Amino acid sequence: MRSAASSLRRVPPDLLTDALKDTIRDAYNAIVENKGLSPRWGQRQMIAEIANTLARIPESGESRGEQPAVCVIEAGTGTGKTIAYAVAAIPMARSRNKRLVVATATIALQEQFINKDLPDIRQSSGLDFSFALAKGRRRYICLSKLDRLMASGHEESSLLPLYPDEMHAPAAADAAPVYESMLTALGRGEWDGDRDNWPDAVAEEVWYGVTTDHSQCSGRRCPNISQCSFFRARDALQNADIIVTNHDLALSDLALGGGAILPAPEDSIYVFDEGHHLPDKALAHFSTFCRLHTTASWLGDSRKLLAQAAPALAPVQGVDRLLQALPGQMEEAAASLQVAEQVVAALFDPEDVDAGSDDQQLRFPHGVVPQELRPVAATLAGQFDQLAGGLGRLEGLLEESLDDDFAGLDKAELETWHINIGGMLARAEGALALWREYAVSGEDEVPPKARWITLLNSAGQYGFDLRCSPVLAADILQDCLWTRAAGVIVTSATITALGSFERFILHAGAPREASYKVVASPFNYANASFRVPPMDCDPGNAAAHTDALIAQLPDILDRDEGSLVLFSSRRQMLDVYQGLNGEFGGGILLQGDYSKQEILRRHRAAIDGGAGSVIFGLASFAEGVDLPGDYCRHVVIAKIPFAVPDSPLEASLAEWVEAQGRNPFMEISVPDAALRLVQASGRLLRTEDDSGRVTLMDRRILTRRYGRAILDSLPPFRRELG
């Protein structure tokens, strides 16, 4: 225990008070003693680093110092980072009068933290704190929508779907029994309206019909507000010391300016667990898109629906003028979309369009919008700006009217129209954001944005999907997170690439003045080997490499143990599976044949029954899969996991780096591949007692110039390099 105390004492005395040091030390010692754990050096390092970092948060009324309260910690598997960041961050947040927001990468990790980890830490540490779970509106049922569906007898609803092209309405026979069961369970108090607490699986289209988002929610004006599952859960956040959420909701809140659902960034200390996902998650929240044909169809549906609105909304003062103007604006926008479709079609090879060939992408070099597309994009940007303005004013009038109480106004019908108009506004704003990105040349952007169009083919019917995305999340996170949050802790087992944090700094824009630390895993890597077998080919010759895998895997894999074979290409995975031709007697579980969870269940059941089992999987099995002990004694990696070359984001970033005279392969592709290889290798050792082997079927790690750097970035396995 003395080591933990001495680690904290090394922190400069002006940053941490003795009382805080004692609180953190006592909490850690209590957990170790009460849970019968062995103190871990890595945990002590993390505790000291986090406490030191968060002590930079200024007292109320003071200005920020030169060094931000941001730290990025790579903590190897088995470090026990949850205990470490909780023990350090909870007392520090309280001392600075801040709320602690812990964001995990997935809902499963979020629920483990709230249902198991935090109660356990509170009970064993002596720390007194409260916590609550934060989820987005989409995870909760909307009583207003459910009421309307039940009242309509599950026939055609008066609600306009937000994205009917992406989510079709469910069949009444499928949805009605589910909705009735949900209403009964709510009435009896047997269910809290949280999708994750519903006892049965719910089809996506069935759930989509009875949930909502912020654009369609009337908030505190809703007549069902007192029973609203989302707002009940949100109210529980108001006084919680710790709010547990996921990356998506944390970033959604930041994208809305902060403080919409979660506490304001300035009042929050964020912990991003599995934080290597943070840059990619941020890009997804700030990208824009518009699908031409279906957006035009949606405008037509909206125009027809608005024609029905006038009688119902007549008592609302000021809506007449808007309801007269909006249909015409929608018609003009739909006509412009048809013009845009013709312009876009001309950018593709006519034979591909006419033949209805498979989906294909057209990426604009350096993100520069073709000259012929800019005028129609500017027209559409203006039209959707006008349309969004009108819908926004109409929504505002309806919102105000929900508070009024006068004869002639049917509140239930008014709320239905408020939901519909809110949905229209959200989609109009989404289209506006896309067309603004295409109305400019894009020539002076640094870094450039990725802009691309996908020619979609569905049963011979083609359509066009336009996209725009930043290639780096650096500026985004700089504006909404790093410079605004009171403090930020980013931690994961895999953040560095090639032994450096440079990749994360490039993609996430984390301040260089922040604290960066690598905490080694407590696992004994001498219990495992890393092997590169002799091969007379490498993946550069895809056909020969596939043949070599088919020939060598029967000798490499032990049929009596648990193994995981990871591929970078679905085609190669299928070719190898078919080429083995029953070699393993049905003992291979192929990704795509079952759900991921079902594959893992079957695999564990086979091992528990004394048989062997082999999983063939892609990237989703290379991360977040936990198969300890006998469940995985061998990880085979088909090749170094370089990124798919046709990704528009990857291509645009590489193009920008190359334009600056730098080497995108060495700066981006190699570090990315090294990180993915470490993640894949990490599937082997999951506990301190695990042992086994990792086999890489790619001799480029030995023969190419970049191979040594990748090899040296791997955990210190025993090496068997053939």
Describe the protein in words.
α16 (374-401) packs antiparallel against α17 and α18 (474-482) packs across α19 (502-508). This protein has a 7-stranded parallel sheet. It has a 7-stranded parallel sheet with strand order 14-15-13-16-17-12-18, with helices on both faces. A 4-stranded antiparallel sheet has the order 6-9-8-7. By secondary structure, it is α/β, with parallel strands linked by helices. It contains 26 helices and 18 strands. Residues 1-13 have low confidence and may be disordered. Helices cover 46% and strands 13% of the residues. The longest helix has 29 residues, at 319-347.
Strand order of the largest sheet: 3-4-2-5-10-1-11
- The overall pLDDT, averaged over residues, is 89
The number of helical segments is 26
Global outline: globular
Sequence stretches where pLDDT stays below 50 over 5 or more residues = 1-13
Radius of gyration: 28 Å
State the separation between the terminal residues, measured CA to CA: 45 Å
Structural class: alpha/beta
Number-wise, the strands total 18
Task: Please describe the biggest sheet, giving its number of strands, its sense, and whether it closes into a barrel.
Answer: 7 strands, parallel
Percent helix:
40-55%
> Which range does the strand content fall in?
5-15%
Give a brief description:
The chain has 722 residues and is an alpha/beta fold. Helices cover 46% and strands 13% of the residues. It has 26 helices and 18 strands.
Topology:
Elements: H1 2-9, H2 18-35, H3 41-54, E1 70-75, H4 81-95, E2 99-104, H5 107-125, E3 131-133, H6 143-151, H7 172-187, H8 204-208, H9 229-235, E4 242-246, H10 247-255, E5 268-273, H11 278-285, E6 288-291, H12 292-307, H13 309-313, H14 319-347, H15 350-355, E7 360-363, H16 374-401, H17 411-438, E8 449-458, E9 461-470, H18 474-482, E10 487-492, H19 502-508, E11 515-519, E12 528-532, H20 542-556, E13 562-566, H21 570-580, E14 588-590, H22 596-608, E15 613-617, E16 634-637, H23 648-659, H24 664-681, E17 692-696, H25 700-703, H26 707-712, E18 718-721
Parallel strand pairs: 1-10, 1-11, 2-4, 2-5, 3-4, 5-10, 12-17, 12-18, 13-15, 13-16, 14-15, 16-17
Antiparallel strand pairs: 6-9, 7-8, 8-9
Helix pairs in contact: 1-2, 1-3, 2-4, 3-4, 4-5, 10-11, 12-14, 14-16, 16-17, 18-19, 20-21, 23-24
